[in-house]
Amino acid sequence: MENFDVIIVGGGPAGLSAAISAANGGMKTLVIERGDYPGTKNVMGGILYTKATDMVVPEFWKEAPLERPIIEQRLAMLSGDESILAGYRDPDWAKEPYNAHSILRVKFDRWLAQQAEKAGVMIITETLVEDLLYQNGNVVGVRTGRAEGDLGAKVVIIAEGVNNFLAVKTGLAKPLKPASVAVTVKEVIALPKEKIEDRFCLDEGQGATIELYGDSTAGMMGVGFIYTNKDSISIGVGAILASVIREQWTPNDLLENLKAKPYVKRLLQGGETKEYLAHLIPEGGYTQVPRLHRQGVMVVGDTAMLMNSLNREGSNLAMISGKIAGEVAAQAIKAGDVSDQAMAVYEARLRDSFVLKDLYHYRHMGEFFENNPHLLKIYPKMFSKAAKMYLTADGTPKKQRQKEIMQMLFEQRSKGGIIKDIYGAWRALL
Amino acid sequence: MHFVVCLKQVPDTSEVRIDPHTNTLMREGVPSIINPYDAHGLEEAIRLKDKVGGKVTIVSMGPPQAKEALKKAMSFGADRAILLSDRAFGGSDSLATAYIISTALKTIHETEPIDLVFAGKEAIDGDTAQTGPGIAQRLGFPQLTYAIRIRELTDTSVTVERKTESGRQIVQAQLPALITVEKELNDIRYATLPNMMKAAAYEPELWNVNSLSFDLTQMGLKGSPTSVSRIFAPPGRSGGEIIDGQNDPAGTAASVVQKLFQQNVIMVNPLMKGGKR
């Protein structure tokens, strides 16, 4: 049986970041990935944040396969065929030190794996880790599905993604609940560069994002998204699995529904679907974060539920958690102490960073939307109606129109209800 | 025994499409794989090595990224992998490729005599089925093509069951010999973890045009008499004819038989007694 210092289960952003920092700490490091190569099984909406990635691979933008730097973020609230739009654009985001880029994971993750290999990490693909190996209750390695498949490790970092089979087997996490995950489907639609830039009002090479709320998810807790790539557009939609089951949608119908919206249709016109992807996203929030460590083991990335859906941040949380776990593993192994106490440094550092601070900040959010399923159903409609009444010039005096709007709003939702919703949102989000 | 496997990295043709406007292959984003027939040749070589002992050497020609295919091939339990890669080799057709690979095999043969060479019956990107036989011819080895079973391997000979259009043929050849293989030959194994690790750390040997004494006129575009005049997508099949047999089965059967005669799909055996021409 071959022995390693650190074995990482899973070759996504969290696992590869952990591998790079462990190898940089002088550890003999192995990543075990079940796909053909890192990236083949990995899915996200497609936005990579610069700051976190830079901490893992300094100045990655000079070499990494990125699509477009994001200079504009739009919000759309859809109600039937109507839409309310808001957004922020900053051309400075097209320059260093960038804020975020769109990426295609199958290319980016493969590149990140190459960076890990350059740092001395060994990567084994097409191999599934089935269990951890124990000796006197201590974790001493992993068991893979291959013949002669046991490997020794001083520390195992579980970065298996949202499907947390190994973390559950280890007793650190509980099986996923339909209320704690979103099911997301996405298409990559090919379009010529010029068309993308025209349709999104972009200078050459620049990118934009649109998040769509309301009817984009048929009023379910979730979001639709459109991201510009170099010569394609990623469009997708995700909603909490429990509500998709309850309201009897199929994820594909949700996506087709979004693609048929007038505001969206025009952006995609003439494109050819190149790829179809689907994945679960961990949306359990702070209260569903599993135990993050035990003797010889740390849990990172999606497996650790590290996802801030409101700000559409996930890969950066994953990478930071991986980086910290890799560093903690190296320190612990050098000190000859991989006890639970030594691993706890990982959690302490996560708590000290934006990763768990942000999750803690939004800890009531999931519960708030779960208990108030009307929010994403009635407010988009109310706001659209109000906007239409206010902006339609039909000779009604404005004072009277404003009165009518207020009346309409209170017909849809009582004054008390609105106050309750605002207070709830305030508590959950601010 | 020394087994050599000729192996090619090919685009996964199940994912290649032809651009309907330019008639060129759209290779962008298409994954590269080991030519499936070659993988069966590799599997057989490793099985024989497991049985009789010896060594498996893999030889491939291709661009530098073909290294990936060789590393993967190593994970099944091969011992050595050599990649012939040079701009001068680019553009070679099956004739020139057979020349380059056979030259490499001759060099290997001088230091480590080869007993058996395996090659896939054809590569899925070209379907020519010429390179394997071409190598055998240049090496002066007997060639056993379309093998579906190795019946016997002795110190001096190999007996092979081969697929023909009308059935099976059992053929025997003296060693050293070259065998091209069909997929029915075996089932490919799931590599063991130690072999995966060995392969992950393995760097295939790179041989270029200066590594051996090559005749430059026999390689690349210059050494390739084949020229591709046109690439096109085959026309879609026209829909078949559906004959309704619900009401008159006997009449339908008769009309089907008549149609089959008309199309020369079936015919009366003229040697049969009473047969009509």
Largest sheet, strands/sense/barrel of chain B: 9 strands, mixed
CATH architecture of the largest domain in chain A: 3-Layer(bba) Sandwich
Average pLDDT taken over every residue of chain B: 90
- Class based on secondary structure composition and strand pairing of chain A: alpha/beta
Rg calc of chain A: 23 Å
Count of domains of chain B: 2
Distance between the termini of chain A: 52 Å
Largest inter-chain contact set: A-B, 14 and 11 residues
> How are the strands of the biggest sheet of chain B laid out side by side?
11-10-9-12-8-1-6-7-13
Number of domains of chain A: 3
Low-confidence stretches of chain A: none
Secondary-structure element order of chain B, N to C: EEEEEHEHEHEHEEEEHEH
The CATH architecture designation of the largest domain in chain B is 3-Layer(aba) Sandwich
CATH homology superfamily name of the largest domain in chain A:
FAD/NAD(P)-binding domain
CATH topology of the largest domain in chain B, anyone? Rossmann fold
Strand residue percentage of chain B: 15-25%
What is the strand tally of chain B?
A: 13
